Automatic annotation (TrEMBL):
This is AAA family ATPase. Residues 13-187 form the ArsA/GET3 Anion-transporting ATPase-like domain. Pfam families: ArsA_ATPase. The lineage of its organism: Bacteria, Bacillati, Actinomycetota, Actinomycetes, Streptosporangiales.
Amino acid sequence: MSARDTDWDGVRLHVVTGKGGTGKTTVSAALALALAAGGRKVLLVEVEGRQGIAQLFDCPPLPYEERKVAVAPGGGDVYALAIDTEEALLEYLEMFYNLRRAGKALTRFGVIDFVTTIAPGLRDVILTGKTGEAVRRKRKDGSPVYDAVVMDAPPTGRITRFLNVNTEVSGLARVGPIRNHADTVMKVIRSPETAVHFVTLLEEMPVQETLDGIAHLTEAGLPVGGVFVNMARPPALPKSYLAAAGKGKLDLDEITVGVKAAGLENHAAEIARALAAEAADHAQRAELQAREKKRLSRVKQPRYELPLLADGMDLAGLYDLAEALNDQGVA
């Protein structure tokens, strides 16, 4: 298919992070659908073992294998992989040490859990390495198996350490297969083919974690992608009414007249007061969003907004979010 003019031309690994509760997995899934639109093949990878991808795509829990979970608009395919740390470590032992049978024996004694606990850097090498392998994988004709790979990564507070695997394994191995594997992973992560995206809400804590995360990645020399503002809520009132509502100066008599005109004669004054209070809460929320949006405008990264879905998140909503991303030039 022909190339598309997008914000992320040339990027093949999209790492998605964000503070817990911001909808990181949802945005990862929507991004995968958006990237696959028009006939492309995309792999969506989960590394935290929560089976969030299966829930979003309304399918059974994912095994440790790449499975097709959705057809994107225009005929593209989205595959998904839930990385199982134990299976990935066994695969790693077989690949580099020819020790898969021994590795299976080790699991019975909990040695794998012990190793990944005392050497968490090794766990991250395994998880990022499996994702990096999918990025590098080629068909017989030399073309990539996947046009793009999206990783639903750990939260913002851990993302720099998670991705900077060379630093994490420096105390484990300075030479040998582990070190070589880490070096290979870092070549992918530090390349122009990778972008680390941040998901946030227009709230103080998520925005602050996003700003801090961007600063930490930049300091570590890791590639920063875009900022995805999730569950954005447009103001439901004109600016003049928002200002009055925020100051508690809405005309209760006018609201009461409107309530009666709507056929709610009984308790009209009480309903009017409740509506004024709700309007005041909405005005405060709108003011908060505007303030946090202004803070985000200080960063140079592209910013995208995804709406709060009135009917909640389901598969149809996921496609709506993917369309919103495509409309904003993500893919």
